[in-house]
Write a structure and sequence with these properties.
Rossmann fold, alpha/beta, Arc Repressor Mutant, subunit A, four-stranded parallel beta sheet
């Protein structure tokens, strides 16, 4: 079946709808209810951040949202129009499509610039290779057919498909996804291809940088349990904002130890790894899978139940439940309790506990933090003082 232009027609609802809902379906498969109650999560994404925030809040988490970067408005993107004109002037033999969102913005941007029909004619004559099912759905929804799909949804594998077809002396157009993948472009050029790129979206600085400053401060103070990243530029944006505040060192140290970084995929994780941060990454590179990974991480590593001499004590994030009462602990008290629970019944020295309070300058500050912990707990007797030695959990 074809439309009046002669292009193959595919019912949009059969593909684009599935692509749009895939992430949310995955998120709904994760545990629901207040499983994240007591946890605080930072969200750095701009596009579709509402879906991510809603998924966490429906599970009981408190969310701090501050876009680290944003996507430039399509009507202001002169680079997209210039890229499109260059590709129309040099019709590609092969087109590599990396993201569904990027493809849609490219087509929409071309239409807005009056180049839609010319671009469609060029794409009809090219072999379109897609990175994954979502990209395939977007291509087919726009009335085109693809000639191949990567098995593992990686850009490197999609480029590999092009190399298998043979690109020597041919022209290849690559749709970028937010940044230029130099290594993959060089693979094509080394094989003899003439390469053109199109960047359907560009990252620019956020409009409200005060929110980003608050997120930086919360991470540096270890007041968050997890910070999520859905793009590599967001990592750079957060660190750059911290550097402007003179806090990049403490921010990175907090992400290395104390606050978990969660990245949607290996491309997003790469700048974190370069900083010495080990993020959690889902096996499927989708927002829904990211939600499920964060839920699994926090419910596995952020929840503790200890049998004390006075009864069971349950700690979930900043929340402590004892004898049917649930209270929220401030940061310092939470750090003290986490240390005591890590070695139930053992006497922790004052020096050891001071290490958990980087802002504390002396033992008096430790005594004050311990006093605040006891005052916040449902029962002060849960923490015992061992004279001239330190403190212990009453087990």
């Amino acid at each position: 079946m074809s439309d009046p232009t002669g292009r193959a027609a595919h019912p949009p609802t059969a593909w684009s709808g599935r692509a749009e809902t895939d992430e949310l379906e995955t998120a709904r498969a994760a545990p629901t209810g207040p499983v994240l109650r007591g946890f605080r999560i930072g969200v750095t994404s701009d596009r579709r951040s509402a879906d991510l925030i809603d998924a966490f809040e429906r599970r009981g988490a408190e969310v701090l949202h501050a876009p680290a970067v944003r996507i430039a408005p399509i009507e202001q993107d002169e680079h997209l129009v210039a890229d499109t004109r260059a590709i129309i002037a040099h019709p590609p033999d092969v087109v590599v499509v990396t993201t569904a969102y990027g493809w849609r913005r490219w087509v929409e941007g071309a239409d807005a610039a009056g180049l839609g029909d010319e671009l469609a004619a060029v794409l009809d004559r090219a072999a379109i290779l897609v990175r994954g099912p979502k990209a395939r759905g977007a291509v087919r929804a726009s009335g085109h057919d693809d000639a191949g799909i990567a098995a593992d949804e990686r850009t490197s594998s999609t480029v590999g498909l092009a190399l298998e077809r043979g690109v020597a002396g041919r022209t290849v157009a690559v749709q970028l996804h937010g940044h230029e993948d130099v290594e993959q472009l060089e693979r094509l050029r080394a094989a003899g291809a003439t390469v053109f790129t199109v960047a359907p979206y560009r990252w620019v600085r956020p409009t409200d940088e005060s929110r980003l400053g608050r997120l930086v401060a919360a991470v540096a103070a270890r007041e968050l349990d997890v910070v999520t990243f859905t793009s590599a530029p967001a990592v750079d944006g957060l660190v750059s904002a911290a550097a402007q505040l003179g806090m990049d060192g403490v921010l990175v140290e907090a992400l290395r130890c104390g606050v978990t970084a969660a990245a949607v995929g290996p491309v997003t994780a790469a700048p974190l790894v370069d900083l010495g941060v080990t993020p959690v990454v889902p096996q499927r590179y989708r927002m829904g899978a990211l939600v499920r990974t964060v839920v699994e991480h926090l419910t596995t590593h952020g929840v503790a139940e200890v049998a004390t001499a006075l009864g069971p004590l349950v700690v979930q994030g900043a929340h402590v439940t004892f004898a049917g009462e649930t209270v929220a602990l401030p940061r310092g008290a939470r750090a003290m309790l986490a240390a005591l629970i890590s070695q139930p019944g053992a006497v922790l020295t004052r020096e050891r506990l001071l290490d958990e309070l980087p802002d504390a300058e002396n033992e008096h500050a430790l005594d004050m933090a311990m006093s605040r912990l006891r005052a916040a707990l449902p029962d002060r007797r849960l923490v015992q003082t061992v004279v001239r030695r330190g403190y212990r959990l009453n087990v």
